[in-house]
C-alpha cells in the first residue's frame, strides 16, 4: 500500500511538472509570437480593394493575384520606409458565414475610408481585412494568422473601425458601433491595437458617404477591451485567443511605463480577472473549460525574471558622453556589444533594460534601420531586448523609438 501511494504521488508530481513545462512553453511561444511576424502578412492594394464589387475571401483573392505577401518584418519596414501606408480594417461580421449584408454596405463604407486615406496620404496604400487577408478554408493556416494578429496590428499605420448602421443578414437586428463593441473578435483587434501601438491613429467610418474621422475620447470610452466578455458566435474561439492575448500582455508589461501604454496597463491592473479569465463555459451553467488557468502567473514571473536581468545594468544615461572609441569600449564592456562603430559626434543614451550582443552597430541615415543578429544575443533569444537610445548628429537628434523582432534578430527603428 505504501509503495502504491508513493508511486501515485510520484506520478502526480511528474504530471504536474509536465503540465507546468507545457504551460511555460506556451507562454514563451506567446511572447515570441507577439514580437515577430510568425505568419506572412497578406494585404491588398488600395486600388484593387476599392474596385471589388463584393467582399472576396482570402483564397479567391490569392488565386486572382490580388494579394501581396510580406514574409518578414523587414519587408514591411522597407515598404513603410519608402512612404507606403498600411490600413488595418476592423469590423463586425454581418452574417453567420458572410461578412457583409446583401447590399454590401460594409464594403462600400470600407472603400470610402480607404479612398480618403489614399487621397490624403498620396502614397501607396495597402489594406489588411480579415476576410481577404486570413485563410478562410484552411483551419491550420487560419490559426497561424490569428497568432500573428498582434504583429499585423502593430505594423499598421491606420486602424479603421468600420461600423455602418445596417441590419444583420441573418438575425435582421440593427448593427452599428454599439454592436461592434460587443463582438469578441472586434474587442480582440482593439485590444491588440491598444497593447501593440497605443490608442493612436484610430479612425471611424460609419457609412459610405460620411468622412473618415478620428475616434474621440467619447468614442473610446464606449469601446470595451474586455475580449473574453465579448460575444462570440463560436465560444470555442476564445481558446484560440489565449496565446495572442498573453503575448500582448507581455508587450504591456515591458512597455507599460511609456506614456502610450500607461492607460491600458492601468486598466489591466484594475481587472485582471476580466481581461484574463481562468475558465469559461460553452453555455450558461455548463461545464467550465480552461482559458488562462495559471498561464498569467507564469507570464508575470517570466517578465520579472527578465527585468531582474536588467537590474544589474547601469542606466546608459549615466554614462559619460565620450567620443567614438571610448563609447565603443564602454558598450563592449558593459553591454556585451561585440563591435560598435560610431562616428565621433554620435552618443548613445537612455535605459538599456537587458544586455544584448550586437554584431555590428552602425548609425545610418535617419529613416534607416539597425539590424541586431538574434544568434549573438545574450540572455534568452526571444527578440525582446528593449534597447532605447538617442543618436545625435550635427543637425538634429534621432531617437530610437521602437524594437521590431524579425526572423534574423531585432531591428532598431528610428526617425
Describe this structure in words.
With 415 residues, the protein is an alpha/beta fold. The chain has 2 domains: 24-307, no CATH class; 316-414, no CATH class. 43% of the residues lie in helices and 17% in strands. The protein is built from 17 helices and 17 strands. The strands form 5 sheets. The chain has a 7-stranded mixed β-sheet, with helices on both faces. Helix 1 crosses helix 13, helix 8 (149-155) crosses helix 10 and helix 10 packs parallel to helix 13 (242-255). The longest helix is centred in the N-terminal third of the chain and has 33 residues, at 2-34. The protein is globular and about 75 Å long. The relative contact order is 0.11. The model is unreliable at 310-415 (pLDDT under 50).
Set down the secondary structure blueprint.
Blueprint (H helix, E strand, L loop, with lengths): L1 H33 L6 E5 H5 L7 H6 L3 E4 L2 H9 L3 E7 L13 H17 L3 E5 H4 L5 H9 L1 H7 L2 E5 L3 E2 L6 E2 L1 H6 L1 H14 L4 E4 L7 E2 L2 H5 L15 H4 L1 H14 L3 H12 L1 H4 L3 E3 L6 E3 L4 H17 L12 H12 L4 E2 L19 E2 L6 E5 L16 E3 L4 E9 L3 E6 L1
Parallel strand pairs: 3-4, 3-5, 5-8, 12-13
Antiparallel strand pairs: 1-2, 1-4, 6-7, 8-9, 10-11, 14-17, 15-16, 16-17
Distance between the termini: 71 Å
Strand order of the largest sheet: 2-1-4-3-5-8-9
Name the average pLDDT.
77
What structural class do helix, strand and pairing data support?
alpha/beta
Contiguous runs where pLDDT drops below 50 for at least 5 residues: 310-415
Overall geometry: globular
**What does the main sheet amount to?**
7 strands, mixed
User: What is the tally of helical segments?
Assistant: 17
Radius of gyration: 23 Å
Helix fraction bin: 40-55%
Number of DSSP strands? 17
Number of domains: 2
Amino acid at each position: 500500500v505504501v509503495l502504491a501511494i508513493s508511486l501515485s504521488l510520484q506520478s502526480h508530481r511528474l504530471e504536474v511538472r509536465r503540465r507546468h513545462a507545457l504551460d511555460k512553453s506556451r507562454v514563451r511561444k506567446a511572447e515570441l509570437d507577439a514580437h515577430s511576424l510568425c505568419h506572412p502578412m497578406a494585404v491588398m492594394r488600395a486600388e484593387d480593394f476599392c474596385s471589388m464589387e463584393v467582399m472576396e475571401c482570402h483564397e479567391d483573392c490569392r488565386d486572382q493575384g490580388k494579394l501581396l505577401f510580406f514574409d518578414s518584418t523587414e519587408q514591411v519596414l522597407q515598404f513603410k520606409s519608402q512612404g507606403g501606408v498600411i490600413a488595418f480594417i476592423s469590423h463586425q461580421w454581418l452574417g453567420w458565414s458572410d461578412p457583409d449584408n446583401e447590399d454590401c454596405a460594409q464594403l462600400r463604407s470600407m472603400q470610402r475610408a480607404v479612398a480618403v486615406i489614399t487621397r490624403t496620404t498620396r502614397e501607396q496604400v495597402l489594406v489588411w481585412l480579415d476576410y481577404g487577408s486570413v485563410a478562410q478554408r484552411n483551419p491550420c493556416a487560419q490559426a497561424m494568422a490569428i497568432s500573428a494578429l498582434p504583429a499585423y496590428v502593430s505594423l499598421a499605420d491606420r486602424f479603421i473601425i468600420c461600423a455602418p448602421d445596417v441590419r444583420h443578414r441573418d438575425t435582421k437586428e440593427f448593427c452599428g458601433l454599439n454592436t461592434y463593441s460587443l463582438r469578441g473578435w472586434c474587442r480582440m483587434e482593439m485590444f491588440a491595437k491598444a497593447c501593440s501601438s497605443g490608442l493612436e491613429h484610430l479612425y471611424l467610418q460609419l457609412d459610405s458617404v460620411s468622412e473618415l474621422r478620428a475616434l474621440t475620447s467619447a468614442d473610446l470610452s464606449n469601446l470595451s477591451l474586455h475580449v473574453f466578455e465579448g460575444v462570440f458566435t463560436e465560444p470555442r474561439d476564445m481558446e484560440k485567443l489565449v496565446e495572442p492575448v498573453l503575448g500582448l500582455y507581455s508587450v504591456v508589461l515591458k512597455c507599460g511605463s511609456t506614456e502610450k501604454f500607461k492607460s491600458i496597463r492601468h486598466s489591466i491592473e484594475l481587472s485582471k480577472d476580466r481581461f484574463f479569465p481562468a475558465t469559461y463555459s460553452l453555455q450558461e451553467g455548463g461545464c467550465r473549460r480552461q482559458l488562462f488557468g495559471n498561464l498569467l502567473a507564469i507570464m508575470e514571473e517570466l517578465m520579472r525574471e527578465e527585468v531582474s536581468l536588467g537590474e544589474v545594468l547601469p542606466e546608459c544615461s549615466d554614462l559619460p558622453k565620450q567620443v567614438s572609441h571610448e563609447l565603443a569600449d564602454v558598450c563592449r564592456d558593459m553591454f556585451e556589444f561585440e563591435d560598435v562603430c560610431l562616428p565621433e559626434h554620435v552618443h548613445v543614451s537612455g535605459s538599456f533594460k537587458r544586455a544584448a550582443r550586437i554584431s555590428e552597430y552602425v548609425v545610418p541615415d535617419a529613416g534607416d534601420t539597425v539590424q541586431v543578429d538574434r544568434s549573438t544575443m545574450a540572455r534568452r533569444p526571444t527578440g525582446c531586448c528593449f534597447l532605447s537610445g538617442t543618436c545625435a548628429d550635427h543637425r538634429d537628434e534621432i531617437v530610437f523609438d521602437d524594437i521590431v523582432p524579425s526572423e534574423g534578430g531585432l531591428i532598431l527603428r528610428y526617425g
